[in-house]
Amino acid sequence: MKKSFFFSLVAAGLFTASLAKAADAEVTLVGEGQCAKCALGKSDTCQNVVVVTKDGKEQVYYLAQNALSQKFHDNVCTDTKQIKVTGVVKETDGKKEITATSIELVKK
Among 33, 57, 90, 95, fewest CB within 10 Å belongs to which? Predict the structure, then answer.
């Protein structure tokens, strides 16, 4: 009985660990890069967002403030451009946020 309980605990721990790793998986989003303040009027300060349209619905992903997103901001502050962002998505204060590891303009 003790062995089966032990193995159940181990299996539950492994399952939880695999879910946590899946939640931290990198994704790639392609959409309209914009400024949350200047273009969308949804922020008091400049911040990059990528607006992704899927199944006719728009989803706004805020880019976490890091060196990469701050350096890229001049590309989208006053002009909307197609961008591709790779990073880890999480929910923060009811908003989708992506911590970018790569940002690039989409070439047409």
Answer: 57
Residue with tokens 């309209």: 32
Q: Which domain holds residue 62?
A: 26-105
Asked whether residue 36 is domain-assigned, the answer is yes
User: Does an H or E element contain 69, and which?
Assistant: helix 67-72
pLDDT in tens, 51-78: 999 899 999 999 999 999 999 999 999 9
Q: Is residue 69 part of a domain?
A: yes
How far, in Å, CA of 27 to CA of 86, rounded?
Answer: 6
Residue 85 carries which side chain, given as an amino acid letter? V
- CB-CB contact of 52 with 85 (8 Å): no
Could you tell me the pTM of the whole model?
0.77
Q: Which two three-digit tokens encode residue 85?
A: 């962002």
Which position has the token pair 């605990």? 9
Query: Domain count of the chain?
Result: 1
